[in-house]
What we know:
The chain folds into three domains: about 5-165, Thiamin diphosphate (ThDP)-binding fold, Pyr/PP domains (Rossmann fold); about 180-290, Rossmann fold (3-Layer(aba) Sandwich); about 290-475, Thiamin diphosphate (ThDP)-binding fold, Pyr/PP domains (Rossmann fold, 3-Layer(aba) Sandwich). Helix 1 crosses helix 2 (about 30-40). The chain is globular, with a radius of gyration of 23 Å. About 35% of the residues lie in helices and about 20% in strands. The protein is an alpha/beta fold. The protein has helices at about 5-15, 30-40, 50-65, 75-90, 115-120, 135-145, 160, 185, 200-205, 225-230, 275-290, 305-315, 330-340, 355-365, 380, 390-395, 410-420, 435-440, 450-465; strands at about 5, 20-25, 40-45, 65-70, 95-100, 125-130, 150-155, 165, 180, 190-195, 210, 235-240, 260-265, 265-270, 325, 345, 375-380, 400-405, 445-450, 470-475. Helix 6 links the parallel strand 6 and strand 7.
Amino acid sequence: MSLRGADVLARTLAAAGVRQVFALSGNHVMPVFDAALDAKLSLLHVRHEAAAVHMADAWGRLTGEPGIALVTGGPGHANALGALYTALAAQSPMVLISGHAALDELGKGAFQEMPQAELAAPLTVASWTARSADTLGADVARALREARNGPVHLSVPNDVLDARADSGVSFSAEERPAATRVPDELLNAKRPLVIAGPAAMRAHGDNKNIIGMESPRGVNDPSLGKLAVVLAKADVVLLLRKPLDFTLKFGKAFAPDCRVLRADGPVDLPAPRASQEAWFDEVRAALRYRPAEWATLRSKPGAPLHPLEVCREVKKLLAAPDAVLVADGGEFGQWAQACLEAPRRIINGPAGSIGSALPFAAAAKLAFPHAPVVALLGDGTLGFHLSEIDTAVRYGLAYVAVVGNDACWNAEHQIQLRAYGAARAHGLDLLPTRYGAVAAAMGAHGEDVSSVNELKAALARAAAAGKSALVNVMIERAAAPRY
């Protein structure tokens, strides 16, 4: 018996080992919702299309398997596009599958007709529209292969999903490319460095001699200490899937006579030579650097908490060997990235976007259900996907979100202070909303904290709640750390 295109799509995903699809329903993709039942695909139904993409992005980064987002066409597809940029900058393995107006109605004013593949193309490594139920399986298989290099988009028209396919479902994994040999220039250098982009970081995560760069702060990333100092001393640098972009000051972060090499595929990296050990010790010490005064910094009596003091308490929740740290962007997120470590970490990434923390945390908890997952985000950031607390409650995703609430768009406020002065800082205030109470009203565990004495117990209760939890902490408007 022939299969519908929707069945071909769902069963090809299942045959490829896909376990989870992050989806938001809509007219164009309801055949896929139906086909998912027989294919035994698990659908996590979100509240906004961008959240589905963020979750697929996080799934891909954390598991190494392509994350799958499924959204409807037209405005649903448009809602998903902004989040694709975050995934692209992070070189994340994921696929966005969008419903689409029927092929035989295109150009006639079809419902929610839009040039979807063209719109997604700048935000992906590949983007196209399926043309036949008979070739849809091959389209899906290609999308999964292409996703090894970054996010992929595939639009699937209504009539392709409903049409009957004569071809069956088959999927075979493509062989991984072989690793290449390290250039002799790097092996013979006195002060070599290997700098990895996000994808190479994940591939070489256990190699302590690689510097991973995934922050929009680049050489000033507070989680990398005095990185700028050692970059300026290097004589040979190998960039692993890392563009020579703004994060490296377009090459000006290196000495003028530094030799810069590039590799876009896997590289077999040997251990440093004995003559290079002292240099690598210096590099590791520079990356570990944090100002001594951080150890003793305390909030002012009766004042909102300093972000560092919040991080000091949150650190205790990340002691488990399988813990996952999620850190969003913004000033509070930068403190989290600088002060906290965990066996697994996912941040907003080189795109410099904000708003992904709650979707990231949901995907992390789904991927690692027995691991503690802790997300730190600002109050401005929280507004992007506050409704995803509802998603976490519905699916029993027991992460802990810690919101640093300074009632302000503080990153931009700090720009105003630096560039224009306090007298011209305006337009960026928010309300000191009790987001803990908001989360509780949505069915989560929620608490609102205004002093360090309250924080420790509130975090302990959140971690023990057995459901998604949000601790809203009033913090001072501190600038992100700068060394």
